[in-house]
What we know:
Elements: H1 2-19, E1 23-30, E2 37-55, E3 58-76, E4 82-95, E5 100-114, E6 118-121, E7 127-130, E8 135-150, E9 158-170, E10 176-189
Antiparallel strand pairs: 1-2, 1-10, 2-3, 3-4, 4-5, 5-8, 6-7, 8-9, 9-10
Amino acid sequence: MRPLLFILLWLWLSQAVAQTPIQLRVGYFGPTITSPGIRVSADYPLLAHNRRVVRHEDTLTKTHQWLLSGSVGFYSRGSLQRALFVLPQTGYQHIGKRGFTKTLLAGIGWLRLTTPSTAYTDLKGNRLRVDVPAESVVMYSVETALGWRYKPKQGRPWGWSLRPSAFWYKDRAGGSSGSLAVSIDLHLQLQKP
């Protein structure tokens, strides 16, 4: 019975995905310009409401969407910290008449923090190495975005966005840590309209 339910669910989801344009985003992600990282995301509109606006013989469309977004990424703070994350998010996106986009997302995900081993010399001249064990924590995130989407008459829609975000977590000692980050993304719609 379970395999049959799984197959039916898979067929239903693949049919929904095939009819809905998924947007793939790739871009820089980092808490600072000197803390480089990368993020790959996919945005899937769960609900969308379109409104047509006629101006000067042009028919333009405004779109309001409830999005489901998933991101996988990595960033490095040099010798202090490296992090790998998986972050599902949900939120609202508005696509204006001329392609200007505004987005607000919130999510809870997984963050894996590692610290490179550090070598130092104590006062007696002994060379010591400190290894800090890696830790996995729950990551909370709030993100906003401003961008632009271009819809050519032929080909796939594409665009860009600037996405400031805040994320925070509790470390193994119970203290809260957080960071502001920025993501500069290029996006491409996977299916042709």
